UniProtKB/TrEMBL annotation:
One of its GO terms (cellular component) is mitochondrial large ribosomal subunit. InterPro entries: NUDIX_hydrolase-like_dom_sf (IPR015797), Ribosomal_mL46 (IPR040008), Ribosomal_mL46_NUDIX (IPR033650). It comes from the Eukaryota. This is 6416_t:CDS:1. Gene3D superfamilies: Nucleoside Triphosphate Pyrophosphohydrolase. GO terms for molecular function: structural constituent of ribosome.
Length: 96
């Protein structure tokens, strides 16, 4: 679930409210050539986005999977991610 995944990546030190039960959108991509291993039967990923509000607390990232994070505006995010990814998700992002 979205709650479990968020807690795994960002810790469980935040008071969060998910707006609705359905994703607001998704991003789909194929694995790069050479990434797919013999045991993996999937060729790509579909990442679902949920709208949520953080009322209190702090992100405490899992350093095993995540190197760093930053709070950025929608406009600033364009400088942090690949252009194809940004173009695919920009309409899902809040203007706040």
């Amino acid at each position: 679930t979205a709650t479990r995944e968020l807690e795994e990546e960002c810790g469980n030190h935040m008071d969060i409210w998910f707006v609705g039960r359905r994703p607001i959108g998704y991003y789909k991509y194929e694995y790069p050539e050479g990434y797919i291993k013999d045991l993996v039967k999937y060729t790509g990923v579909k990442v679902f986005f949920m709208k949520a509000h953080i009322f209190s607390g702090q992100v405490r990232i899992d350093n095993k999977e995540i190197v760093d994070f930053a709070w950025v505006t929608k406009q600033e995010m364009e400088n942090y991610v690949h252009p194809n990814f940004y173009n695919a998700i920009k309409d899902m992002l809040s203007e706040l």
